[in-house]
Specification:
With 331 residues, the protein is an all-alpha fold. The chain is built from 19 helices and no strands. The protein is globular. The two termini are 32 Å apart.
Amino acid sequence: MKYLFRLTLLFSLILGASACHRGDDLKGKTAEEKLAILDNKIHHKQNDAKLYAQRAEVFVELGRYSEALVDLGRATTLDDDNPTYYMQMADAYMHIGNIDRCYEVLQKANELKPNDTGILLKLGEAAYYHHDNERALVHLTQVTEKEPNNRTALFMKSFIYLEQGDTASAVVLLDKICGLYPDFVPAFEHLGSIYATRKSPMALEYYNTALRIEPDNTNVLYGVAMYYQSLGDFEQAEHYYKEMLDRDENMPDAWHNRGYIQLFHYGDYELAVDYFTQALACDSTHVASMVNRGVAYELLNDKQKAREDYQHALSIDPKFQPAIDGMGRVK
């Protein structure tokens, strides 16, 4: 958990805005049942663009994106003036990682429905994922010019400003969001992480606000733990890592960091091995845990196990320097 936010989750705030209206006969049905109903409808009515769009939505629900795109191609052929179909198509392309095509079809949607904030938000998202922050800001600014308090646009802009090194502008936007939307945890969490990098006590103010709203938010608990760890307050850090794992044991970064504290600060190598092993049980590709467990094994004078961990780490990431260094020590 190198970064507290998962952009795909945050930006999913705008996904689904293009979903088409479903008939009453689809309500309460499973995806497979909806698919069967729509297959039958399309069989009897093959020139209905709405039916293809509805079935595409179900295909997306099932993770069958190629089939969704085929149906949306049919829908746009039958009705090429409906921006909703192009927005659905953009979502499907986003899911499969084809950002170029995603942006192209969103531009088509924007031509059909100029200055629609939903389309502009998705254009901003697509540009961001295409690593074109300047173009993303253009689209997002178009949104905030029309809707100055649009939470999603403001939040996305804060990410971009932070990536550009303009932390001050990011903080201004996040403070604005916190004032407008006092229950929006990600903004408080994000501010907490910014102040935590500065080792400022302000980090705890924002993190604690987020925890008052969502006491079980493991991302925030992780941020608090990392903050205390950065200050060298390992007892408090351990407390929050444990609290986080009490809520969800499947958190490899928390297990790793507990091991790191035991290894490098308390010198309890056996307990460190146990924590790193727990991290690897959660994620067998967690390279940092492999390497640091290898270090712990070295300090326990078990060079064979240390070598195995370094070799395993290098099989996953041949350029991971700590693993290379470790192999050099135990040859």
